[in-house]
């Protein structure tokens, strides 16, 4: 492979070349930087990217003796700009934090850096990863469309092959929805499986750190580094004879034609591979999850942004001001009721999901909407985020404009490695039978 096309490699493949001394970390970094330079004006995925810093880190990694190299040695990773990085500003897309440099790494960044990763740059986000007002970033498949959010730059950078892996966070649908819009894999682990220390908080009850990549093998590497372990080591997954539950949820009336067709096509592909697909209607207890989610998130938002509100509320998005001022008039009693109901439903969804290979459900209403002013609806994601279950967006489908649409696989809590095994097999048949990226 030409040095100029190294940027197209998945993390796993690039790591193999670095480990076998076929390329240096600096050569790999230069290929990525060259591609960023050629595409930055069309995508604008970066809040901060310093080529000199990238190359300096790359050279330092090349000097590390072979016996002392970490499992991610030389792997370039984008970091959402709501996570502290000791050598780059963390601005949260807020004028209140312009140029702010906290000289410490967030826990996920620290873990990656200590595993040999090349912390490539900071990716764009909506303000405090908490609004649907889009940053400057464009969908790499169509400049007239949003990449989704709030992890806008992370998803766009991975989709455009500017980095093979990027960190995101999800409070509503900020990993899964952009994964769908950009035609890449998005992985939201079980809530609490990865530390949020040093990551800007919106909801203590919902915020989850996750990843984007272009292969499930890359997620497996990350799962190893973050020590994600099921209680029982999962066996290799076999599609033949497995049963998947197709779950439309109460949001189904909002699904666009692209998502409707994607669900139908996914069922066809799974059945053709020898799996069984059954329709799952959740018990009535799960009705009203959208309202329950909002009570929890808005209750948490009342306290999350009070510091900035008392500092300069005029510099904050109106949505965030409304959170602090509780314009929805949600009482603490209603917030507690929602917390308790959702908590009672988590063991229930674990029992239901454990009866199937995985639950198959929509990732987004349809393909990415037009314009970058809004990052689009995350209505299909609220329930799964609130239930704390692991979710993987699997690309492979497209809408009426030829833009990507993904679907989600869901498993019980702390069955992350099992879900990745299932996702690896499902992603193969979705890739073979569906949408192909032209990037």
UniProtKB/TrEMBL annotation:
GO terms for molecular function: catalytic activity. It comes from the Eukaryota. Residues 29-420 form the Amidase domain. Residues 131-145 have a biased composition (Polar residues). Residues 131-155 are annotated as: Disordered. InterPro entries: Amidase, Amidase_dom, AS_sf. SUPFAM superfamilies: Amidase signature (AS) enzymes. Gene3D superfamilies: Amidase signature (AS) domain (3.90.1300.10). PANTHER family: GLUTAMYL-TRNA(GLN) AMIDOTRANSFERASE SUBUNIT A, TRANSAMIDASE. This is Amidase domain-containing protein.
């Amino acid at each position: 492979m030409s040095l100029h096309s190294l940027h197209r490699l998945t993390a796993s493949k690039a790591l193999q070349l670095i480990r076998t001394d076929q390329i240096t970390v600096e050569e790999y970094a230069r290929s990525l930087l060259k591609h960023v330079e050629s595409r930055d004006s069309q995508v604008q995925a970066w809040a901060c990217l310093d080529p000199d810093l990238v190359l300096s880190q790359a050279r330092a990694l090349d000097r590390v003796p072979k016996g002392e190299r970490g499992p991610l040695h030389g792997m370039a990773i984008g970091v959402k700009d709501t996570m502290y990085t000791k050598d780059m500003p963390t601005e949260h897309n807020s004028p209140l934090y312009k140029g702010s440099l906290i000289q410490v790494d967030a826990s996920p960044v620290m873990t990656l850096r200590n595993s040999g990763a090349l912390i490539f740059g900071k990716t764009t986000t909506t303000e405090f990863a908490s609004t649907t007002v889009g940053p400057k970033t464009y969908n790499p498949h169509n400049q007239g469309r949003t990449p989704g959010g709030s992890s806008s730059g992370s998803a766009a950078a991975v989709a455009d092959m500017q980095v093979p892996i990027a960190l995101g966070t999800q409070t509503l649908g900020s990993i899964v929805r952009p994964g769908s819009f950009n035609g890449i894999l998005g992985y939201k682990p079980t809530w609490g499986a990865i530390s949020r220390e040093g990551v800007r908080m919106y909801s203590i009850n919902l915020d989850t750190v996750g990843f984007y990549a272009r292969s499930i093998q890359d997620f497996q590497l990350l799962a190893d580094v973050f020590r994600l372990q099921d209680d029982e080591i999962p066996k290799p997954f076999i599609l033949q004879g497995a049963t998947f539950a197709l779950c439309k949820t109460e949001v189904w009336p909002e699904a666009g034609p692209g998502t409707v067709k994607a669900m139908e096509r996914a069922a066809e592909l799974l059945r053709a591979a020898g799996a069984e697909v059954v329709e799952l209607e959740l018990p009535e207890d799960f009705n009203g999850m959208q309202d329950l989610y909002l009570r929890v998130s808005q209750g948490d938002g009342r306290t999350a942004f009070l510091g900035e509100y008392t500092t300069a509320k005029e510099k904050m998005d109106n949505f965030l001001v409304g959170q602090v001022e509780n314009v929805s008039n949600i009482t603490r009693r209603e917030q507690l009721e929602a917390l308790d109901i959702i908590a009672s439903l988590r063991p229930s969804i674990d029992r239901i999901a454990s009866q199937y290979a995985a639950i198959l459900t929509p990732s987004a209403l349809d393909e990415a909407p037009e314009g970058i002013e809004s990052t689009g609806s995350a209505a299909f994601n609220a329930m799964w985020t609130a239930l704390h279950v692991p979710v993987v967006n699997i690309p492979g489908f497209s809408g009426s404009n030829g833009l990507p649409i993904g679907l989600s696989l869901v498993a019980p809590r702390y069955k992350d490695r099992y879900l990745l095994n299932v996702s690896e097999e499902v992603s193969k048949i979705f890739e073979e039978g569906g949408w192909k990226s032209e990037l």
